[in-house]
Design a protein that fits this description.
There is one protein chain. This protein is of the alpha/beta class. It has two domains: about 80 residues, no CATH class; about 100 residues, 2-Layer Sandwich (Nucleotidyltransferase, domain 5), CATH 3.30.420.10. Helix content is about 50%, strand content about 15%. The chain has a five-stranded mixed sheet with strand order 3-2-1-4-5, with helices on both faces. A hairpin with a 4-residue loop joins strand 2 and strand 3. Helix 2 packs across helix 4, helix 2 packs across helix 8 and helix 4 packs across helix 8. It starts with 8 loop residues before the first helix and ends with a helix.
């Protein structure tokens, strides 16, 4: 018998559907370029009546628990990072998703920020370093804000991080942005900043699983099984 993650208990208390149905809908939503209406229709074809707004509520409640569980199983990344930011629309306004990948293309970390400035870049680097350790090298584009944030962090270190400013060396992270944007496009923007952060964390989570960044899940374990195992 499966033992569910105890952190899910308060989340599931008022969700009157089987957990496997909830997890399936949430995974499809963050793994594929589907709208909530698409998911409502797909579940109806399987004899399950679920309103599209209900699927959205499931995602908002469940994804933070699954992301926290994933962090405990995330493989270490290399110490050479490529960092960049991309645009995400929230309530009709552009916000900034800071992201980095290592030299193999594995996701280092991500952070949605309301502004694109030194303070936002510094918050991103501090979060990434806390979760993944200090990098030896960070490659960025010609952004003055990103450079200023790294310079400020280096001023506090005995061994500073090497900074490379080269747009073309950052192609790997710019290409990686596309996988995230493909999933967000059918969502037609986000309702609010909190929902955007949660849903983007789920999209990033599934993207990392698809890149093989989850450890201790056995050879031959599918991406779907890896995602569902986070609830166990």
């Amino acid at each position: 018998m499966t033992t569910w993650n105890p952190a899910l208990a308060p989340v599931l208390r008022r969700l009157h559907y089987p957990l496997d149905v909830i997890l399936t809908c949430v995974r499809w939503y963050v793994a594929y370029p589907l709208s909530l209406r698409h998911l409502e229709e797909m579940m109806a074809e399987r004899g399950i009546s679920v309103d599209h707004s209900t699927v959205h509520r499931w995602a908002i409640k469940v994804l933070p628990v699954l992301e926290k569980a994933f962090r405990r199983h995330k493989k270490a990344v290399s110490r050479s990072w490529r960092m960049d930011e991309t645009y995400v629309k929230v309530r009709g306004q552009w916000k900034y998703l800071y992201r980095a990948v290592d030299k193999e293309g594995n996701t280092v970390d991500f952070l949605l920020c309301a502004h694109r400035d030194k303070a936002a870049a510094r918050r991103y680097f501090e979060k990434s370093i806390e979760q993944n350790g200090e990098p030896e090298t960070v490659t960025i584009d010609r952004s003055g804000a990103n450079l200023a944030a790294l310079d400020a962090l280096n001023a506090q270190r005995e061994t500073p991080t090497k900074i490379r400013q080269n747009k073309y060396l950052n192609n790997v992270v710019e290409q990686d942005h596309r996988a995230i944007k493909r999933r967000t496009r059918p969502m037609l923007g986000f309702k609010n900043f909190r929902c955007a952060r949660i849903l983007l964390s789920g999209i990033e989570l599934m993207h990392m699983i698809s890149k093989g960044q989850m450890q201790d899940r056995g050879i031959g374990c599918t991406h779907a099984h890896q995602f569902y195992s986070l609830a166990a």
